[in-house]
Design brief:
Length: 70
Amino acid sequence: MLSKILKEGGLSKTKLTLYAYLNYQRAVKYLHYLQEAGLVQIDKEVKITRRGLETLEKIEEVLRGLGLGG
């Protein structure tokens, strides 16, 4: 569900943290790491980059191959 939301548009850091059931401070650190890696862009909202989308699609493909994705 979270990947669908990210693909369709951005989310605030707070909403993203709530959807992911993460501690806010830990989530913000992780988001900044993902931004440094070029996977997300953080402005007013967190948005997935083209590189992030490609990475997410590869992860989803692997999970489907393992029978863990829908």
